[in-house]
Amino acid sequence: MVNQAQKGAREGNRYIDTRGQSPKPLEFSEVIIQGLAQGGGLFVPVTLPRLTLDDILDLSQMPYAAQGARIYEHFEVDFAADQIASLMTQAYGRNFDDPAIAPLVSLDEQTHVLELWHGPTAAFKDMALQCLPHFFSAALARQAEAGSPPPDQLILVATSGDTGSSALEGFKDRDHVGIITFYPDGGVSDIQWRQMATAAGSNVGAFGLRGNFDDCQTSVKAAFSDAAFNERLLREHQVSLSSANSINWGRLLPQVVYYVSAYARLVASGRLQAGEELDVCVPTGNFGNILAAWYAREIGTPIGQLYCASNENHVLTDFINTGVYDISQRSFKLTPSPSMDILISSNLERQLFELNGRDPEVICQWMAGLREQGRFEVDSETFDYLQADFRADWVTSDDGLATIRQVYEKYGYLLDPHTAIAYQVAERLRDHKQKPILVVATAHWAKFAANVAKSLLGITVDQDLPAELRDLSGLALNDWLCERYDGLTIPATLAALGDRPVQFSEICDSSTQSVEATVLEWLGRKKI
Ligand SMILES: *Cc1c(COP(=O)(O)O)cnc(C)c1O
Question: Which side of the chain, N or C, has fewer Cβ within a 10 Å radius?
């Protein structure tokens, strides 16, 4: 499969959807533009590749971009091998501040941390969003060459912080694509706000919304499904709306790469025996990252147990432990790990499809239950599979912060509040000393300076920082932390934020009309 791919665009693996409502199976280049399937389902490949241990270990000496290209070829994405290689080289290069792209740090012999935050916005969303835009543009160009040029794409993102800045970085200055993010005003960290408000690029926009993240998501979703609005965009501006959220298969596949790559590198460096099982613990929100680990295992990577770590919004923990997904009585909690503050984990639908024998009718019933009653329960066979693959636990906000301090004191290594949740769950669930574990690190601590400072000072979440720190910006607080604690450094891209002029300071109401008016006004001034 890897060798035959020399000619031009080739026939690739096809994709079906979890609700079985797509008229026909599509190819990779089509599903990444479409995002969500007709009928609301999520795309999955018809067949999954199967890698041998040698296939996996062969990756260990390659640069990360070449590893990515090799995995994409195994998945038979419908681009020629040389084009895949070239897109991957653009995706994973100097834009990351470590040549390993996703370096591994071993805290002790059995505890390895996979750092996924070396991209331009210092959170793991970059692993996918530095990659997808290259394939997205190539897919648009492909359609244009084939004589059916698609309209320009305007990507709308509702974000609780990390996705927005990462998507702005990934899609900036691309032809035929515009990108606007909406974030809850006052609901993102100071650094996250700066990343979005100072976003540069001819085709970008960022707006605060009066309301919380839920309001944000609801208004943006409503704009997507407003037929008259979509028609007007097409007629007056020749653009169609597109989304870059984590249900896009083009965001999931890049995440499979780092699990396979990490396994190969741990073996090559002697930290793991070839073929030995590696457990993985993932701080989970929308279930994308942990699902990628599941796919990495499914295609042959010797991954053992998957540990799903949640914060106080622990609907996934309860689901994995009981087989009942229930949000009917659950209230949304704000925590120091905002990217995991999620009640509806959209990528779980793919996992359920894979575990229930790929039965789209049953998926439709479960999703209808969730929509109408706020709950569904899986059958006992699916539950058995779920229990075989996953274990889950959750951590309170105060325990999460305490974990940051404990790990710093023990190893001199500073975790961000999301990774701390995973570390704590790993400590509780892992088979100590018996089995190696990979703890997945999803953000640099400096994005969440205030809560990290609370942790190091031994303050609980509800207490205020001392008076002299309370009014410092995130940037100043980061400087204070670096001066006071040994061995801390700030990624250059974050340190540079203070010098970047604010481009966007507008706040709009959280209503469909207001979001639509903002989009139209932006289109009047920006050129895609
Ligand atoms: C998005 C995000 C998560 C959650 O990842 P999912 O793929 O949604 O489960 C965890 N940590 C950080 C820092 C994130 O940005």
Answer: N
Which helix (H) or strand (E) segment holds residue 157: the answer is strand 152-158
**Distances in whole angstroms, Cα of residue 448 to Cα of each of 190, 339, 414, 472, 497:** 8, 11, 12, 13, 14
End-to-end, the C-alpha distance of the chain in Å comes to 38
> Residue 521: pLDDT above 70?
yes
Name every residue whose Cβ is closer than 8 Å to that of residue 298 and which is 6 or more positions away in sequence. Answer: 48, 354
Is the pLDDT at 6 greater than 50? The verdict is no
Ligand 1 mean position, distance from CA 229 (Å): 31
419 Cα nearest atom in ligand 1 = 11
3-12, 253-262, 405-414: range with lowest mean pLDDT: 3-12
Is-catalytic flag, 125? Answer: yes
Question: With a 6 A CB cut-off, is 339 part of the ligand 1 pocket?
Answer: yes
Q: How far apart are CA 484 and CA 482, in angstroms?
A: 6
Helix or strand holding residue 210 (H, E): strand 204-210
From the CB of 442, is ligand 1 less than 6 Å away? yes
Nearest atom, ligand 1, residue 447 CA: 13
Does 287 contact ligand 1 (Cβ within 6 A)?
Answer: yes
Tell me the CA–centroid distance for residue 392 and ligand 1, in Å: 16
Nearest alpha-carbon partner for 49 in 30, 76, 31: 76
Residue 1, amino acid: M
Q: What percentage of residues in the chain have a pLDDT greater than 90?
A: 86
pLDDT of res. 210: 94
Closest CA to ligand 1's atom 2: 339
The pLDDT confidence band at residue 10, using thresholds 50, 70 and 90, is low
Residue 311 Cβ inside 6 Å of ligand 1? The answer reads: no
